[in-house]
Amino acid sequence: MATYTPTQLIGLDNMLTLEERQICDTVREFCDRDLRPHIEDWFEDHTIPRDLGPVFGQMGVLGMHLDGYGCAGTSAVAYGLACMELEAVDSGIRSFVSVQGSLAMYAIHRWGSEEQKQQWLPQMAEGKAIGCFGLTEPDFGSNPAGMRTYAKRDGDDWVISGSKMWITNGSLADVAVVWAKTDDGYAGFLVEKDTPGFTTHDIARKMSLRASITSELVLDNVRVPDSARLPEVNSLRGPLSCLNEARFGIMFGALGAARDCIDQTLEYVKERQVFDKPLSSYQLTQAKLADMVLELDKGILLALQLGRLKDEGKLPHESISLGKLNSTREAIQIARTCRTLLGASGITTEYSPIRHANNLESVLTYEGTAEMHQLILGNALTGEAAFR
Question: What CA–CA distance (Å, rounded) separates 221 from 223?
Answer without folding.
Answer: 6
